[in-house]
Amino acid sequence: MFLYGFSVIRPLSVVAALAIVVMAFFSAAPARAVGSASTDQFGVVSVGSPATDVGKLTVVLYSNTPITAVTTHLVASGSSVDALDPALTEITSSSTGPSYIESTWSVAMPITEAELALGVYNVSVDVTFADQTTQSGTDVGTLSFLDEPQITLTADHTKVGYDYSPTVNLSGTASILAPDGTTTPYATGPLTLGTSWGASQQLTTDADGNFTAQVSATGSGFVDVGLAATSDQAAGSATVILTQVTDPIRLAAKLSVNPVSYGDWDTVTGTLSYLPFDTGTAYKPLAGQRVSVGIIDTGGEYLTTATGTTNAKGDFSIKVPSAGYGSTPWTVAAGRSVSPNALQFGPAEVNLKMTVKIATKITNFHLKLNQYWGLSFSGCLNLPEKAPVTVDAAGLVLQYSSGGPNGPWHTLAKNIPADSRCGNDGVWFASTAYAPQNYAYYRTYFPGNNLTGTDLLGSSSQSVLAWKYADRVADFSVSPHVVANNGALTVKGQLQQYYSYKWHGYAGQTVYIIFRQEGSDTWYWIVKAKTNSAGHFAASFADSVGSATWSAEFDGNATHLATSPPGVYVRVS
To answer: Mean pLDDT for the chain?
Structure first.
């Protein structure tokens, strides 16, 4: 039976069996000693014939005394009658140790088919020792007296790789070597082709024993051709070894845009080349190859995001997204890095760091100015929908402009608290400040940062106008500056409002006369005064508070800002 993938050797040929048994003999005591328990003993090293000379029956023996004659008896399997009893001639004899002699015995002339029919025979020997004692009928093995197939097999190339066709053309010749040494073509005979990767074919020889075949190789392996043994033929095969050639490759890649704005697409461009295994002194473009762009997850697994194919010049261009990835370490891969079973090329990888700049947006910005010059404002520093990061509002400021809604802008408040989420993973901020003037534009501005590992772009809110009429107390006076306890004190002035580019008296408003006692930081009001049609007010009262600083205060209203003039010190004597 023909075994795919193995060269079948005659099991009892002298060439194969002799070395194995002799090694066993020298490494230990004789495995089988035959003969009497008296002085003379012998054992068998091997029995058989060369595959190229089947009729050359040869027996190798070892003994403790010299052997002078050996006669063999060949008996067909299943029979008890000798088919042939050839005498053997000693070919060699040598000492193999202090107590043993190894001798080789062979027929003087090869056995022919005229003497013995083809088949497998049991072999026994009669051995005569130098002291003329004889030991007869000792079984020593079998002889395969069969026709021997002679098969040659060649391939037009034995390398498999990118520069070598995967199609391998095979040719060879099959012939039959008879025991008598004559050779005849194995004409129109069936052959079986086998491969290490499982493909097989049935072949037929021509009248001269020639045959051809073709296989498609996928990598390193072997191809063999043989024929199944018949009752008068041994099995035989010839083998061709195929070797996979792996070419090193070189991968160059870069990002077309870096950094890229979140939501935009970027393009990975590059070139793939290879160095021919046999003749390569310079890299050549590698066309038609798959290149992939992906990421390596936390478990170390490569996840492909996009792929492309190289053109005739080895160039490739692959679009990759920025949305959903943030600042991403892309891995560009080719060759075995992409296809582990693509044995033609070695692995190649290039790592690219895409920096994604994510836009921010300030939404729901509100600002109010109260009559006491106080500003309160709030809003949401927001991100695009499904952005893969959260935002840190560090650097957010409140700015104002007195020149109009487009600036120039001046920073008014920093370190604005932002501690709750809003919008698309944005952050809500709210705070207060004092207005620098009665009429101004305001906005919040975020300069951007990279505190969360992602580049956040700057943004600003819409500008908001906040204003109230400016007021002042003009011609403010307190008299006298020195007064006796419970003496009369008079406070007067004019409340004015600014509009139409000049100051006007502000009629019908309540003005509080206030004081701050010496050594105190707290102001109190003592009387109220009403402004007349020209905005003038006046109040006289007994000074019972002791030495103090006196002033007047307009508390403002929905449209006007509060105001107060500098204080006047009055000493009570």
So the answer is: 88
